[in-house]
Amino acid sequence: MMQLLWDIRVSLDLFLGGLGVGAFLVGVILYYVDAKVYDGFVKKSFVIAPLLVIAGLLLLLTELGRPLNVIKTIYAINPTSFMSIGIFLQSAFVAVALLIAFKVLTSGVESLSSKIVYAGAILAGLVGLYHGFLLSGIAKEPWNNAIPVIFFVSSILSGASLMVLLNLGSLESLVTRFKLPLIINMVLTIELAAVFAWVYNLALTTASSKHAYDVLISNFSMEFWVLSILMGLIAPLAIFTLVILNKLSLKAVAIPTFAIIVLGSFFLKNLVVYLGQAV
Amino acid sequence: MTKKYGMVIDLHRCVGCGACDLACKSENNTPVGINWASHTTETYGVFPKVSYKHTPTLCNHCEDAPCVRVCPTHAMHKTDEGFVVHDPSICIGCKSCMLADPYGVIFFNKEHAFLDFATDTSSAVKDGTFSKKELSDKAKAPFPNFNAARGADGYEAVRRKGAVEKCSFCNHRVAKGLSPACVVACPADARIFGDLNDEKSKIATTLRAHKPTVLLPEKGTNPKVFYIREYN
Ligand code: SF4
Ligand code: SF4
């Protein structure tokens, strides 16, 4: 039987943290492209991002046996521990993101200095990468080096999708200016390639990785093939391809398609967290 | 040269009696389900050619310990003498060490262990026998203790809810020139404990005289618990 040491709260932390990081980075891109035109979008991104990351961290705290001791990680840093580095990075990101959110809410997007947005973007990127490194640093068979890329791209996809869902009014302008379906399809393809590399590595390399692959296929096939791959990646890829070919209108399919990308990101991360503990 | 402690377990001498498991339980007062010293058993072959293998297990005090590498607070740390030990006062209970340890020898204290020894005032024979609480108070053991004697020597000796724990190679005993409790209890002298850096020590000469094996060598942890010979 699987000894479950990290339960759904860890998956939710990685998922919500990823959503926050993705939302923040999309906000940063639009801020630099045209802060005036995308004022509302940028504002929502910068406000929602720290809240999502904080929500994830609070869930994670409930998973710890001695949460009050977290304060001690500030002076007892272990440079070989990704969790130690991650606690630092996340605290720094939350501090900067909250400052940005406060400025945006009190004085508007135009009051932001581009330097602080830049600092926030770097921290968001590092936190996004940390989510995967937290697992790959523990070095369980399924938590291999493909995971940081898979998690990071998944975070960008889900965060961007969430923000589009919250800004459906800007959809047309985003499509005209950025060819949104094309960009999303490119990112979905990168994610599929990273997931393929991960599965390939598990299925065809060492005896223990093959065992992990067997567990994935026999115990998690629904979560993996149906919810993560088919629903979260292939279905949106197919729908956006039809949109690009003008066979579908983006407006008609936007809500369900972006929603399944967000859900797929959760299922994929949750599956990886559980699979690592099942082998 | 600094000392580097290790242990050899001679599987040919080991009779599988479990005295080591019990001595550890007694020395470290481990609750039900937490076994710093334990063993695995394997039966293989086809009747009438059936073989049995009893392998005592404990923390390997790995040279390249993954539990130490991933611990975010240094609660799990390595001493200069090669002990991998745990400091519950700074442990955040994240269980990363348990996930990283390939040997499954770290345990999590989900609940307060021995809470009944701090709260239970009922006695089996009224005014005739001690209650659990009286017993614990009279023994002057810190609650929830795992080793009052260890605590008296300045080592962390309180079992905390939410923290992990594991074999310490009885470093509190070793500091006094004693061997770990499991080594002393073994009736077959199957366990040899000592300084690996001392070429003349019994452990070093034994290791040179045999072809030692370690558990899961492919994990690259460089264990300091070695196994020699076989029962069969
Ligand atoms: S056996 Fe496990 S707990 Fe002991 S040092 Fe090695 S990795 Fe750490
Ligand atoms: S549970 Fe405690 S000892 Fe283990 S990695 Fe976390 S903080 Fe370190």
What does this protein look like?
The complex is a heterodimer of chains A (279) and B (232). With 279 residues, chain A is mainly α. The longest helix of chain A has 29 residues, at 250-278. Chain A has helices spanning 8-34, 39-63, 82-107, 114-136, 147-166, 171-178, 180-204, 207-219, 221-244, 250-278. Chain A is flat. Chain B is α+β, with helices and mostly antiparallel strands and 232 residues long. Chain B is built from nine helices and nine strands. Chain B has helices at residues 19-28, 66-70, 96-100, 116-119, 132-138, 148-152, 171-174, 181-185, 202-209, and strands at 5-10, 38-46, 49-57, 76-78, 84-86, 107-108, 164-165, 191-195, 225-228. In chain B, the strands form four sheets. Chain B has a three-stranded mixed beta sheet with strand order 8-1-9. In chain B, strands 2-3 form a two-stranded antiparallel sheet. Chain B is globular, with a radius of gyration of 19 Å. Chain B starts with a strand and ends with a strand. The chains are: A mainly alpha (279), B alpha+beta (232). Chain A binds chain B through residues 5-6, 63-67, 69-70, 72-73, 76, 78, 80-84, 87, 137-140, 276-277, and chain B through 66, 69-75, 90-96, 98-100, 108-110, 160-164. Bound molecules: iron/sulfur cluster (2 copies).
